[in-house]
Design goal:
single chain, alpha/beta, Zincin-like, 3-stranded antiparallel sheet, globular, binds zinc ion
Length: 162
Amino acid sequence: MPKDELDSLMAGLCRELLALGIPVSGRLLPQVQVNTRAKRRLGCCFYQGGRYWIEVSDRVLGDEALLRQTLVHELLHTCPGCRDHGKRWKAYAGLVSEKLGFKIERTVSTGAQDGPLRHEEVKYILECQSCGARIERMRMSKAVKAPWRYRCRCGGKLRRVL
Ligand SMILES: [Zn+2]
Ligand SMILES: [Zn+2]
């Protein structure tokens, strides 16, 4: 799927959610990012500096139903109080299932040996200052709190970038 089609698919889904009264953030970057490295991830919603952006795995691009589901799952994370899969997020996901007729899942089985694909909400990213490797974390950890105490596999210093 060409990049501009992907962006307009997300814009269309945004409009559908807003029409249902779901308050998708206006501070969302309109460009969908495509991740080719995170093999088991469906998608992710990032937040930094007052802006949200959405990333999808290249593995979902060939399956339009899964792509839509993934984009909606992540769009719901931009609503107030919805960074986690808490009550409010679940209520919106339920509303989407009911009104738009597709289920918003957190994991999707592909039948592949490497297990299900997941939505992973990356909240923290450490970056190696020598080789540029990125370490993504869904939750707070010792390394996220004090990256200067840890080293990359290459021996380089880590720095928190998200
Ligand atoms: Zn999620
Ligand atoms: Zn490194």
